[in-house]
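During the reporting period the student researcher (J.K.) took over the structure-prediction task from the postdoctoral fellow and processed the backlog of single-chain submissions. One of the processed entries is reproduced below for the supervisory committee.
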Amino acid sequence: MSSTSTAGVRAAQAGATLTEYLEGGAGSAPALDGGQRQQVVDAMLAAVAGVYAHLPLKRAGYALDPVQALVLLRRRCADLDDSAFHLALTRIVTGLRDAHTRYRGPSTTAGRVAALPFLVETFGPDDDPTYIVSKLSPGADVGDPGFVEGVELCWWNAVPMARAVELHADSETGGRFDARRARALESLTFRALDYGPPPDEHWVVLGYRTAGGSTGEVTVPWRVLAPGWDVAASSPAPSALHVAADPARQAVRRARTLLFAPDAWTAGTARRQRRPSFDDVVTATVLPGGFGHLRLWTFDVEDDDAYVAHVTGLLDDLPPAGLVVDLRGNPGGLVWAAERLLQLLTDAQIAPTRFSLLATPLTRGMAQSPFNRLELGAWAASLDAAVTTGESYSRSLPLTDPEWCNDIGRRYAGPVVAVVDANTYSSGDLFAAGFVDHGIGPLVCVGEATGGGGANVWTDAQIIDALASTGTPLPPLPAGTGFTMSVRRAVRSGSADGMPIEDAGISGIPYAMTRDDVQHGNRDLLAFCTHQLELV
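J.K. obtained the following structure tokens:
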């Protein structure tokens, strides 16, 4: 990097302390009046009852009724203070355990991430995990020379580490406990302020143990970063309506890249400025034994053609002995990009994931509107038929044209294994499902399964646009509030045809991380994966 870009990266990495940020008024916003609060609840109520794709599943799976909860909140929202109102609404939405569906309160924290300058990872059995600092930002100065990469975390704000993670998991999304715990572990140190409040504490007090057995305590302040790069869902491109991603984790991924991989962060900034580079979204290396390693960090791209061409070029240069496709931590992105990659790894004809709409008067009006004909017209007849058949959903149709999924064909001839974890989400789930359902190769899973994000996600602005020409338009939300929502439910194809993805995720060969994995570049995990290649 040039000296100018180096200075810019260092400034972006430094950000401001949370205390400085809030005392400066940067995170504040005018309070909503009673009428505005009712307007927000009315919009959420209409969208959840009429558009939310997983409403029947969440009602049955968690014995909750978000519609009634919103009705009750509307009755008392004018009597709440502003923070209590936003907290109540956030809890209702978080209770859906759906990372696609999030409420965004009014603030000036758009694009900001609260961060601590280190990563926490775990290894060992679920009933006796060990938590260690796996990465420390090179520019970080925590004021304690003993706090280095590899120290074991024993206490978090005076709470035993395992209990602290368990408590935080209760406030996270995820249909399974292991998925909530994985997201809690990530959000201990990174939180997207677009989709949640700042941390209550302005700094954390950590008790740790070194490799030599000595103990220490360190206080680390939260800092607020602006990592940039808007996600594909915010783009005006046609691809924006075909995104499956966790918007909060997309922002977190950018902040982590800024702190721990600044060269890739610079490359991502260049890509967003229309300078071609995919270095921040996919990398390729050669492993010991002559196997290839393709790391798919995210599917957050706007141009699937350019992305698939780039990955094709990487595959052409990797050795043919075997390939590990690594999707751990992939938060999703453009559905087209994820599903079109599968053809490069197999001779099988790829049948893409299919999506359906909840059958309600609201979705029926959306699909029948001439304004939405190109996007939703194919679902209109089945939504209309549901009035008399009583079906809960429309027919299931692909978002990715099957011809696009098979327009290039196989480009990697050797055996392939994929590896995922509970933070592989959304379009990452779709890729894993297609990989398994088309018999491309073994799927190794760190934990029980992938994260279980089975939907196409839209923003409130996209839903408002789709409803504008119907008889039940949704007005814009006040004061910068907003939401994202699961609009079309995903079901698997191939050998698991019709099986839902939401909450369940995609399971495979289980694997438990080791200390060597966490501290030495996933050494044991990659050896396990290459052994699976030898068995194919």
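The committee noted the following: Residues 34-50 form the longest helix (17 residues).
J.K. will present the remaining backlog at the next meeting.
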